[in-house]
Hints:
Elements: H1 17-26, E1 38-42, H2 48-56, E2 61-66, H3 69-82, E3 87-91, E4 104-109, H4 112-115, H5 118-131, E5 132-140, H6 149-155
Amino acid sequence: MYDEVRYPSGLPPQTHPDQLATMATLFGMRPGLVDCCRVLDLGCSDGSNLIAMAYGLPQSQFVGIDLAEHAIVQGKATIEALGLKSIALHRLDLGDTPSDLGRFDFIIALGLYSWVPAEVRDIVLVVCGEHLTAREVAYVSYNAYPGNHFRDMARGV
């Protein structure tokens, strides 16, 4: 299904490490340095968001995970065309996230949490818990009601 219905990619500003670090600081946290951070994107689609970050933050490292094979292949082609070395995309089920992936300063799960079954939501939280650094900044967005009723109607839920 993930390859049949393409998830639109984009560059949501709220997921950029600058924004995440600013919000974390405002809430009393002390996030790591943005210019040399590690970012994990769960449900990265074709990696467009991470690719833009990798281009702008060349000293940082970026990893994306998505189940959609076509999106990952497309993202890898873009990464190769741009010659980016600090980014890797992996076609994986979140439940198969390798434990040796390392720790990240920022973990992004944009929209994913709202679209997956409850057992996958639990896996998202487990991955965040196992792969965050001590400075712990995870961005997990969730479509809330009443505004999300229109999206549900379009999806046929």
